[in-house]
Amino acid sequence: MRRDDRDDPFDDIFSEIERMMEEMTGGVAGGNAGFGSDAHVSIYEEDDEIRVVADMPGVSKEAIDIKCDGRHVTISASTDRSDYEERIELPTRVDEHSAKATFNNGILEITLDRTGSSANIDLS
For 77-119, what is each residue's pLDDT tens digit? Predict the structure, then answer.
């Protein structure tokens, strides 16, 4: 029996759901949703700190590498199925030596203290 979808108002929705499921499973039908090439990353600005939160399902704590240069945070990770690296521009300069990170149930959270926007320079 052939499906007649000429007037199916849900066809686009179902196609999008299928595309999203394939993306989440790496194209393997029925596979586990693993850490893909586009982890969701959010940045939260608070009074004295910046928080970077990344959803990283399927990644072990040992596979994560985090670097900060004061203006950017780079998150790298590797799983059996994929490698991931993202360089995130921070909204303000931070003290990279103040960084603290936690990883719990696939959620990476990095907290960084803000620094002053500029340094005073003495004119001699």
Answer: 988 888 888 999 999 999 989 999 999 998 999 999 998 766 6
User: Are 54 and 77 contacting, i.e. CB atoms less than 8 angstroms apart?
Assistant: no
Pairing of strands 72-78, 64-68: antiparallel
Helix (H, G, I), strand (E, B) or coil at 1: coil
Place of tokens 């399902």: 57
Tell me whether residue 106 is exposed, middle or buried, using C-beta atoms within 10 angstroms of its C-beta: 0 to 12, 13 to 18, 19 or more. Answer: middle
Instruction: Retrieve residue 53's tokens.
Output: 């939160």
For the whole model, what pTM was predicted? 0.64
Q: CB under 8 Å to 87, separation ≥6 — which residues?
A: 72, 73, 74
Domains of the chain: 34-114 (2.60.40.790)
